């Protein structure tokens, strides 16, 4: 007799069943089917390739890795070639020196070894120095936990903060669905606060106050506030004054501030600048006893886009030694993060400097990627705003556009008949007609009665005109079909 586990979902945890992560949801599953059909039967669809604009995955869409980073990683993974004469001809001198220095910090000089559960001490020293250089305030390597990207760090914090469904986390709407998914998986309550689309997705303190008060009146114990800056999916970059208000709000209400800062290198608006919440808090002269702050960073975004290397860190400040011990225990359960990701994270926080052999080529590569992303963001913004019934706020940062679509009543009715959300209906039709994969706004959360989708700005610049052409042509046909 077959096990119950082979035939029913009744044996699966309700936390898993209730968890939703639209970025790799039904639309993407369908796209993968179409991709296989194109491979097996070229010409079977009205497009010749699938363009995955659903996820911030730069290298999959053609972005090249940063040469210096890859040189150091290669040498660390194969140290036997460090002393070969031909290595000096193939690798820059500073990458050879950096790899040798890093290997000296790794147990057994082997990237296949376990490390300390918080990450290799020497690499945490480097990252702390990078944080100090960025912010102008001291950073302690003992506050840093190296993780397999930012996502595991978020899960670790949810494990630490959530004890029952009475524990709530304030999260932005729209939000990166990692947060709502992880809150659900760990059995907590997602308490949304709404960003103001009319003012370009601004974060209003009055909205935080209202949602906090309402949640507490329902008996929810709000433990933390999530802020994503620059915003995902909105692209909004917080002003320094607004950040000060947020820090003061968390201090006053006794909330842990969870600062998702993985897009800190991706700022395109000339009048905006990234400031870490650590820097803001320190500039307000708040110390360890004033506010608990966790800052997340990742090697997956920025100009590096190394999603598959799974590197990242969280800086864990303002917690008692007893709580720090519990976080270390959580980290220890996972043994350690992968060593290549640890190395890469140290490199992005300490790239080549003036005078290093790689500095000029590194600077050229970095500037080329960031300036191209800025151009792509503007082209897509203009294209969306030229489409009937579509409005798109300026992407000041991050890697996405989040246009709002005013769908005709007939389209909404057709979606209801298909038992799907109207924006998911639109996204599915877009995929079937063009091969372009976007994520419905309902996967991120949105105000009732509004519909959006998230589209990355990551397809290579030479492909953007063709994508815009496909999008605008599809949208016109869609509106003509359902208008009236």
UniProtKB/TrEMBL annotation:
<dbReference type="InterPro" id="IPR045088">
    <property type="entry name" value="ALAT1/2-like"/>
</dbReference>
<dbReference type="InterPro" id="IPR015424">
    <property type="entry name" value="PyrdxlP-dep_Trfase"/>
</dbReference>
<dbReference type="GO" id="GO:0004021">
    <property type="term" value="F:L-alanine:2-oxoglutarate aminotransferase activity"/>
</dbReference>
<dbReference type="InterPro" id="IPR004839">
    <property type="entry name" value="Aminotransferase_I/II_large"/>
</dbReference>
<comment type="pathway">
    <text>Amino-acid degradation; L-alanine degradation via transaminase pathway; pyruvate from L-alanine: step 1/1.</text>
</comment>
<comment type="pathway">
    <text>Photosynthesis; C4 acid pathway.</text>
</comment>
<dbReference type="Pfam" id="PF00155">
    <property type="entry name" value="Aminotran_1_2"/>
</dbReference>
<comment type="subunit">
    <text>Homodimer.</text>
</comment>
<protein>
    <recommendedName>
        <fullName>alanine transaminase</fullName>
        <ecNumber>2.6.1.2</ecNumber>
    </recommendedName>
</protein>
<keyword id="KW-0808">Transferase</keyword>
<dbReference type="InterPro" id="IPR015421">
    <property type="entry name" value="PyrdxlP-dep_Trfase_major"/>
</dbReference>
<comment type="similarity">
    <text>Belongs to the class-I pyridoxal-phosphate-dependent aminotransferase family. Alanine aminotransferase subfamily.</text>
</comment>
<dbReference type="GO" id="GO:0030170">
    <property type="term" value="F:pyridoxal phosphate binding"/>
</dbReference>
<dbReference type="InterPro" id="IPR015422">
    <property type="entry name" value="PyrdxlP-dep_Trfase_small"/>
</dbReference>
<feature type="domain" description="Aminotransferase class I/classII large">
    <location>
        <begin position="108"/>
        <end position="470"/>
    </location>
</feature>
<keyword id="KW-0663">Pyridoxal phosphate</keyword>
<keyword id="KW-0032">Aminotransferase</keyword>
